[in-house]
Structure formats: C-alpha cells, structure tokens
Amino acid sequence: MKKFLSGLFTLLMIAAIAAAVYLRPQFFQRQLDKIQGMYYVHKGDKALKRQKLQKAIEYYNRAVSLYPGHYSAWYNLGNLYVIYEDYYSAVDAYEKAFEYNPKMIVARMNYGIVSAEKLGDFDGAIDQYDEIIKTKRHLLSIPFVYSNRKSYKMNKGLA
Questions:
Q1: DSSP 8-state code for residue 52
Q2: What structural domains does the chain harbor?
Q3: Structure pTM?
Q4: What is the pLDDT of residues 117-156, one digit of tens each?
C-alpha cells in the first residue's frame, strides 16, 4: 500500500508540473532562459579569468540576450569594452547594469570615469556621481570574512 501511495504521489506531482508548464509556458521559458543566461555568465567569468577577453565578450553578450536582468554580466561587459577602448559600448553596458540594479555603485563610478576622461561628457559623469552620493546601501560586515563598508565609503568619497 505504501509503495502504491508513493507511486501515486509521484504521478500526481508529474501531472501537476506538466499542467503548470502547459498553462504557463512563457513563465517556464523565461526561467529556462535565465538558467541558460547564468550558464553563459559562468562561462564568461571563466574566460575572463583565463584572459580570453573576446570569448568572454561573446559569452556575456549571449548571457544578456537570454537574461537581460543580469547586472553583473552588463558590468563585466562594460569593463571589457573599456579594455578594448570601445567607450560608447562600455557606457551603454554600465547604463544597463544600473538600470537593473540602481544601487550598483561601481557601475556608476566606472560610467562617470569613462564619461569624463574618455568621452568628455562631464554632465553625465556629474549626474552619476550625484546618484552615488544619494544612494543608501545596506552595509554588511562579517568580521574577517566580508565587509562592504570600506568600498562604499571610498566610492562615495571619490564621487
């Protein structure tokens, strides 16, 4: 009897999942795209670590085409464009990064630096520095492990 109930429960769970996929295919497709996007971000991170910059750009572009909300991929893509001196693409990537995460101070800081020093867009840089100053971040400190207090204060001071 216990084996029968276990099999029945498994069958009902499979039927419920199949019904959910059938009734909400867009939701499940978005989830699959996110998973694939995360995979390509991982591949891009590995390529970046091995200094395969062009391959990393390809992986990050593939990742953000599948999962555009991955702000770290946009940020890394912006940094790679700066290395290749494609400053307009870098600024666009940084904009996307803080569009999806408005509190991403490092993307705003890099945007300001590239805008002011490479593109001569001082107004755009000042706007980003103002946003950094206005941004309130949750400070997290785990002794001997992690602390974002120093980087937060440093970036705010630089802005």
A1: -
A2: 92-159 (1.25.40)
A3: 0.77
A4: 888 888 888 888 888 888 777 777 777 777 777 776 776 6
